[in-house]
Model the fold of this input.
Amino acid sequence: MWRTLRRQGIDIGREQTARLMRMAGVAGKGKGGSPITTRKPKGPDLRPDLVNREFKAQKPNRLWVADITYVRTRKGFVYTAFVTDVFSRRIVGWALSDSMRTEALPLQALNQAIACAKETTGLIHHSDHGSQYVSIVYNERLAEHDITASTGTVGDSYDNALAENVNGSYKNELIHTRTWNDVVDVKIATFEWVTWWNEARLHQGLGYRTPAEVESEFCKSNPDKEIIEIKANA
Done:
């Protein structure tokens, strides 16, 4: 909050910001844990770990992380899949469904991410061991676009920590703030949240910049390189 106020030209100290927040009854929210939403595959998962908890990339479309989380609504659970670019923290693909089937959820998010990228050759896609990400149809789509699949160890959230962080922020900043009616209700709000996350939210890991700012700075510094085409997530 303090950094946001400073960016808006308001000359205020960190302690004063904290004091005013306390007076207004406003406080930051800590991130809680989430239940496992991906099912273990029936067969062996032969994907290597090409990340080793080093969530760093030198430019866009070098490393994506993916995961699924859940949302409780009055009509039952719905599920959200995100694909996030590690370089800029931009959510490049997302999908929401009342089914966790590969074709209905994570594959839709992947297709959106691929459509937003100009070049995917050599890109690494990192996820957990959920059956959706091990499925034949999902890995065929990765192979079609020269994307290499990667995964961490079984049951270790730290091996996909960046994707877990996106899920936690989504739940904390949006989902836990209200009661949801149905999948349509959640989908509309998720679209707005993703737009805010990409265009306006300040990310500590980016030096309190937005994903859009990081990509814009990269584009200006590398005018002759192929980078992702920034599109509104639909």
User: Anything to note?
Assistant: Residues 183-199 form the longest helix (17 residues).
